[in-house]
Automatic annotation (TrEMBL):
Name of the protein in its database record: TetR family transcriptional regulator
UniProt xrefs under SUPFAM superfamilies: Homeodomain-like
Pfam families, per database record: TetR_N
Domain spans labelled HTH tetR-type: 7-67
Tree of life domain: Bacteria
Alphabetized InterPro entries for the sequence: Homeodomain-like_sf, HTH-type_TetR-like_transc_reg, HTH_TetR
The UniProt record lists the keyword DNA-binding: yes
Amino acid sequence: MVRMSAEERRESVIRAAMSEFARGGYYGTSTEAIAKRVGVSQPYLFRLFPGKKAIFLAAAEYCMELTRRTFEEASEGLQGEEALHAMANAYVKVIAEQPERLLMQMQMYVAVAAAEEAGDHELGEAVRAGWMRLWDVVHVPLGADVDETATFMAYGMLVNCLVSMGFPPEHRVWEGLYPSARITGRLEK
């Protein structure tokens, strides 16, 4: 059996943490559950990360980076409406095939609101910075048009909310979205 390096183990912790936090949120997920999923002890987990918040921050940054790459790869070489629909299609595919990424995003926003309410701004700063990287990667292919970028991001957040609330693909609530943002038939398992 090949032993993992500390960096490989760290990456496996981040992936496991994203799965656990996606389901339980920041406050409902224990470091014990993360350690168990990875197959390490909690003391080992804390050799890799100074605490639960650091693990959550790493998982949040990883989630945002995956989404940023999704948009970047989908829009490569495209501009305007072609880029918009390519990014929307890619994102809808991701949330249909990897629902943990959507759930992690939603948990990040809830965790930021709770942390900010408690006076802790570190999480919010990190998540907002990641969100701005998403904005920037979408903004350029959409012609650096602020209105187009805002509309695209707003549609994405609406899709996140509708999917999170469990609206089925055939529900009338999807009718107002542009075709590539519709979930119709894509979330059926």
